[in-house]
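Researcher: I'd like a structural prediction for the single chain below. Treat it as a standalone chain; there are no partners to consider.
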Amino acid sequence: MSSPSDNGSWNQPSDDPYGPSSSSDPYSSPSASDPYGQPAQGQSSASEPWGPPQQAAGGGYQQPYGAPGGAPVPAGAPAGQSRLVVGLLGIFLGSWGVHRFLMGYTTIGIIQIAVTLVTCGIGSIWGLIEGIMVLAKAGSFTHDAHGRPLTD
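Model: Treating it as a single chain, here is the predicted structure.
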């Protein structure tokens, strides 16, 4: 049995090829000070779409792809749904999630149906409130699931 006094420490011998003396680490970057490979404060990586928005040439900020507010709509794409139709469906049939299906959010539409059934109809208030929010142009109800803006 070895003890710290036999070797001077519990560490492995210095000629160990896997020890800290190995300088040929293929994963290390010579300028990286963070062991997790994150850029230093004030720097951003071009390959990280989740970073802060980059300043565009015109002085405004450009949102990264997939950011809230939807992706840019390509030319020739079909127009978004009518805000009035989506809002009225939310008010009158919101308990069945019809407005969410129309906007492309099928999962939330199914959840709204389940909540309405489980609560014996009390969950229909959720759809009523969302219908009013669509008509009031609330921030989260300005685009559909495909990034197309709701038309007025």
